[in-house]
Predict the structure.
Amino acid sequence: MDIKKNWSNLLGLSIIVVLVYWSVNNLSSIGTFFSVLSSAFTPFIIGGALAFILNIPMTVIEEKLTKYTGAYRKWYRALSILVSFLIVVFFFYFLIFLIIPDLEQTITSFVEVVPTAVRSLIEFATNFIENNQRTVDYVQSLNIDINSLQQEAISTIQNFATNLIGNTLNFVMTFIDSVVTIFIAVIFAIYILSIKEALARQSKKLVYGTVSLNWANYLVNIARKANEIFSNFVGGQIVEAIILGVLMYIGMSLLGFPYKLSVSAITGALALIPIYGALLGGLVGFMLISVVSFPQAIGFIIFTVIIQQIEGNLIYPRVVGNSVGLPGIWVMMVVTVGGSLFGLVGMLVAVPTFSLFYSLVSATINHRLNQRNLVVESDTNNVHKKYKSR
């Protein structure tokens, strides 16, 4: 028996070594295969993501209807799905027909105002230099062509803004050209939402039928915890972003800031990114408004700081709460690392992903400490056992 077992282990190890060696030497082929595979499954990946997002308002609507009527009825599911999809359709309608045209107009105005703003800045710098003889002598020794520098700055900013408009329009056209993919994704999402309980039951059967009971319970608990964390995080962030965008729009309208719709929408969208989103939104708004009026841009920064304080201390704790269960320092770290590794998507999913890992590790360590009857305290270097009453 031992000989057969050793040969089986050796065979398994040999197969793993061969597969690893082949994979290392065929990374490009593997990448191409997964690229083709992901393209084929794109509608279903989008459908799954859409179903996950729509499940958040759908669940809330079903619970409210059941609580109001006192009983659950089958048609609640269809009504909840319909209302959830209407919310998404309204969002995209708002995005395409209101936000994007206003954003395009904002960027166009920005392009038109930039030359004047750059010339004013150059004139200010020139006057400053002329009033400081030492600075004049130093600048002349550098042989800087002011006119060429001015034209280059104007051309760079205009090209950036023009490319941004083109990219926005390309995004809209790409979205329109992907109607078939979106249609399949929507149908798939509706199917998932309609039978989500059956799918969950089938998944549990698969897990309990293929692995041991302990591992099955562990995997099911992980899935339940992951769904809880991601649902709370995504739902809370979306609601918080909408509230922040509305507050920004109302405040900017009352204070007379320009580009209020575009800046509010951008700030709300960027608020989906923890920590850095608010900073990026304030920076974008400052850049746009500073071209029109620099004092107003300074006022916008002050206004943004006040709104962020209200949002961070009053709104965010009540809307998102402690859904991710991570200390602030960990949130900053995982957002930074996730963004550097996977870009915008990494910044969006890094927090709930690491939160799941953090909660699992914490639960495992606490469970082992309880098994060993140990208590670890922060105010001492010693570890002592729990007191057991007889």
Notes: Residues 212-375 form one domain. The mean pLDDT is 76. The chain is about 85% helix and 0% strand.
